[in-house]
Amino acid sequence: MTRAIIVDCLGRVKGKRLSTVDVIGAGPRSVAGVLEKHKVYVYIKPIEEFLRLKHKVRTYDMLLLSAMSTDKQAVMMAIKYWKKYGKGPIILGGPIVFGYYSLKELEFNVAVYGEAEKTLDELLELGLKDAELPSLDELANVKGVVFKRKGEIVFTGRRDFLKRNELNRYKPSTRSITGYEQYWAYRVYVEVVRGCSNFHRPLIVTKEKGGCKECSACFKGSMLERLTCPLNVPPGCGYCSVPALYGPSRSRNPEAIIEEIKDMIRYGVTRIVLSASDILDYGRDVLVEPAPLTDPKHPPPNIEWLRKLFNGIFNIDEVSKNEVHVFLENTKASLVNETTAKLLGEYFKGSPIHIGCETGSINHAILIGRPSTPKDVIEATKLLRKYGLKPYVYFIHGLPGQNIETVKKTLEVMDILGKYVEKFTVYKFTPIPGTAFEKYPSPPSAKVDRLSRAIVEEARKMNMKFKKQLIGKTVTAVIVNPYAKNTEYNVAYTLPHGPVILVKNARRYYGFKALVKISNVISDRLVMGEVVKVLSNVRLRALKRK
After folding, report:
1. pLDDT tens figures, 212-232
2. DSSP annotation string for 117-137
3. Residue 546: what pLDDT?
4. Which of 501, 528, 497 is nearest to 189 (CA)?
5. Percentage of the chain lying above the pLDDT 90 cut
6. Coil, helix or strand for 365?
7. Which of 78, 82, 162, 153 is CA-nearest to residue 121?
8. Helix (H) or strand (E) holding 519
9. What are residue 25's phi and psi, to 5 degrees?
10. Quick one: 236 exposed, middle or buried, by C-beta within 10 A (0-12, 13-18, 19+)?
11. What are the angstrom distances between the C-alpha of 467 and each of 98, 356, 357, 388, 499?
């Protein structure tokens, strides 16, 4: 049997995660599911674990790499390591391939562009299931691949996005989760919705292309009309590749999601995230079929589908007993109202939920392609908090169009949101290949730019304030590996999700779920705590089931 290893480079940048180390994305498992369907034995390893395998690498017949455009250095490290210890085809996938024209320096055999399932099916049938590469002529006839011919990059063109019924024919792998050393403590993402419903265009880009044609298709057109722009501006927020790379929102069947979660629990997973660009898009695509879902506001959420999914999940024994925590990834303000906030609170009270704001300026929000205004975000955050959720709000500094006025408005909105949010998450704008903003220059860091620094410092100040409110409180957490910067401490992950905790002299509690009392705040990201009661050994439970 052919053996394949998928190396997860997502978010690793230079070979290790800079933050959010407890995340296992859904993409690599989707790829693993296609390989398993073709009787290929597959394991997934994050790159930091892969780089410790040494001669064990020889037991695998081919290497698959999943990465973002910012992870190129990590990909190069993985390829170099593979060539030193192993041999066989090298297949590249993930958002990094969206910028295929910049992949010339990477030593790969084939790269898969966009949704992997159908393309990988074809490649496997052409010999890859036996670790044999198709010929260059065969590759040229497969849609959605990138390869090199005589040193030049060849792209065969993108294939159509999967229809909902096609997406539901594929089953992500669950067994391969055990390749992550501490999967029993990590947030494991289960895909609920693929793609995004925001097909607005960032008007700041249309202005630079000679002016918007004022067809209004992306704001007022039919679902089909919103797919294309006469200026060929990629859809969605200008900084995000999701709608352009993965298409309109499509929902997976509730039965498939529930069964996948049950399988994860059998392997000992304790934290599961329902992955979607907007959980409230779930089932909305069903309401507009056969048209694509390209409107972030209409029709309203499909309450019947949402409730069916949530009921099925919370009827799982381990979830209902709170032994396994299931929580949400994202929602957009454009779909949050009294009814939807109440529904989410009914099932996910006490859990975090992320919501994007990015800028405090209404005009700036429209210019960058946002589906909602800062005012919408404020109202949505109030409602989510009212019904017991813990909103985490995103902002981005250094965006195209940022100026004194937009930053002033952003600081004002952050001040208002401070009464309702649990945390602010601030990112630096990064131009991503294939997005509307890909040709914009990378902005200076917040240390250099005073406007960006104002946003970052305000978020840090407010996050410190939120963290200090935790002192003296007791939370449930899973204790994992020693802290790399000071091994006297072990890292603990709050359940279902919250601040990362450092616990001193806790090695004997490795793998245990425990009650931890917060004793101090180290930074806007880290707190300190002490174990007050051991609850259960989640690692041992996982190993028994593994």
Report:
1. 777 888 899 999 999 999 999
2. HHHHHHHHHTTGGGT-PPPHH
3. 60
4. 497
5. 90
6. helix
7. 162
8. strand 512-521
9. -70, 165
10. buried
11. 38, 21, 21, 18, 8
Residue 17 has a pLDDT of 47
**What does the alpha-carbon distance between residue 244 and residue 482 come to, in Å, rounded to a whole number?**
40
What is the token pair recorded at 239?
Answer: 């900084």
CA distance 417 to 391: 10
Whether 409 and 360 have beta carbons less than 8 Å apart is answered as yes
CA distance 402 to 328: 30
Distance from C-alpha of 27 to C-alpha of 50, rounded to nearest angstrom: 18
pLDDT at 18: 46
Q: Where are the domains of the chain?
A: 3-162, 184-468, 474-545
DSSP class per residue in 24-68? E-SHHHHHHHHHHHTT-EEEEEEHHHHTT-GGGGGG-SEEEEE--
Q: Does domain 3-162 have CATH number 3.40.50?
A: yes
- Record: fold of 474-545: OB fold (Dihydrolipoamide Acetyltransferase, E2P) (2.40.50)
Q: What is the CATH number of domain 184-468?
A: 3.80.30.20
What average pLDDT does this structure show over 353-362?
Answer: 98
Which of 164, 392, 370, 427 lies closest to 273, judged by CA? Answer: 392
